[in-house]
Structures are given as structure tokens and as C-alpha cells.
Amino acid sequence: MATTAIITGASSGIGKAYVDALLKSPDCPEKVWVVARRIDRLEALAAGSEKIVPVQADLLSDEGIKVIKDKLSEGGADVTLLINCAGMGKKGNIADRTASDIRDTVTLNCTALSVLTREVIPYMNRGARIINVGSSAAYLPQPGFTVYAASKSYVVSFSRALAIELKKLGITVTVVCPGPVETEFNKLATDGKSDKFTGFRKFVAADADKLAASSLKAARRGRRMYVYGPPNKALHVGAKFIPVGLFLELFYRG
């Protein structure tokens, strides 16, 4: 039975950075399932390593989850690491976004992450790890990025509770909370209007490769929550003391 890692959202951005970092790791499993919709990118990844197994699946659909479930049930997988990295977000006020934008964000960031985790747990043994990619957006409400921020709050809450549930099984859960990261995420979030961060975000945007390598180390240490980077750590601490109403009034006056 081959030791296996499963990484969703692996075709680009942070997900791909996790693939690269894991392959360089001394404890890399025998097989790395890379999951995403874009099979051409997955096959390009697989061309560089015999360990990589492309798994084309659209996690917005039940059929996408079933692809992974069926592959697990075929046997031969001892999942030692699950990285839930697939995610999306659309900037703009709720009234200006489509119903599908809202539905897809919640489905991918919350429902798919939760259901896939549930399907994988039976194939994990003591010492296995789960990494869920959250965001510093989870700390406080963000008008103009409402659904994304709320969905990442869910990821943080889900992960911290799941860590307690799985403790007796010897499975650790780490939720990773970065701030802005230099990927194609911002371009997709703005419908192609901007591929660069603006304002203070451009000064604190993190490198995806460094984030992936650092958070893998945090997961190995059994960290339940890993806030990446000094600016985000300051925000995390500050969010515990700033009244939400005051924060919204100061920074999001209508």
C-alpha cells in the first residue's frame, strides 16, 4: 500500500507550491495525487516526477468529489497528507456579484473542503496530517470581499474543531492563514481587472513557495493554526481586541 499525499488546487498558485515543496521534502510520500480541473497543467507537473499522479476533478460538483472517492476505494492508498488548497473568491459587493459567484465560493471553500476531508479520513492512519488553507481574511468581516472572508472563517473554525475530533486517532490538523500571496488569485478575484495587489497589500504579499515550505514544517510540528508572516500575526492578535463594529466603522464607511 503506497503512502500518498493528496493536494487540491494543485495546478497553480499555492497548491502548485505545495507540490514543489513536498517533492523536496525528506518525508515525501511515495505518491502525490495532484487534483485540479486543468488536466494539461497536472500532466505538466507529472512529467517532472514519477511520484505525481494527475487527478482531474472539479470539486464544485459532486462528481468531482466522487472521482477522488472512487480512486481511494480502488485500494492501494495510505493517505499520510491531505492538503485542501483549492479555493476561490470574487471581489465586489454582494449585489454586484452573480448568484453563481456566491454559490461557487461557498461550495468550493467550505462544502467541498469538508466533504473531501470526510471521505479521506478513513484512509488515514496515526501520524497522518491535514492542512487546510485559510486566510487572514478570516479574522474580521470584509465588505467588498464578504463571502470569501466568511468562507475562510468557516475553514478556520472547522479546522480547529476537527483537530480535536481527530486527536485520539493521532491525525493532526493545521489551518494555514496567510495574507496576500503572489499568485494568479487576485486576477481571478477581480475578473481579470488587476493581477497585482494595491495599497499596503503589495508590500506584504508573500511568496507562495516560502509559504508552502514553511507551513509544511508547521504541520510536521503539529501546529493547529499557523499564521504566516509578521504583518498577519499582528493582524491576528489585533483582531482579538478590536470590536468588530468599530473596525467596520473605521475602515468600511458606506
Topology:
Elements lengths: L1 E7 L4 H12 L6 E6 L2 H8 L5 E5 L5 H12 L3 E8 L14 H22 L8 E5 L12 H22 L4 E6 L7 H5 L11 H4 L3 H13 L4 E3 L2 H10 L4 H8 L3
Parallel strand pairs: 1-2, 1-4, 2-3, 4-5, 5-6, 6-7
Helix pairs in contact: 1-8, 3-4, 4-5
What does this structure look like?
Helices cover 46% and strands 16% of the residues. The chain is of the alpha/beta class and 254 residues long. The chain has a single domain (2-251), classed as NAD(P)-binding Rossmann-like Domain (Rossmann fold, 3-Layer(aba) Sandwich), CATH 3.40.50.720. Helix 3 (62-73) packs parallel to helix 4 (99-120) and helix 4 (99-120) runs parallel beside helix 5 (146-167).
Concise summary:
By secondary structure, the chain is α/β, with parallel strands linked by helices.
What is the number of domains? 1
Number of strands: 7
What is the name of the CATH topology?
A: Rossmann fold
Helix count, DSSP H or I runs of 4 or more residues: 10
Q: What helical percentage do the residues reach? A: 40-55%
* Arrangement of strands in the largest sheet: 3-2-1-4-5-6-7
CATH class assignment: Alpha Beta
Distance between the termini: 57 Å
Task: Name the features.
10 helices; 254 residues; 16% strand; seven-stranded parallel beta sheet; Rossmann fold; 46% helix; globular; alpha/beta
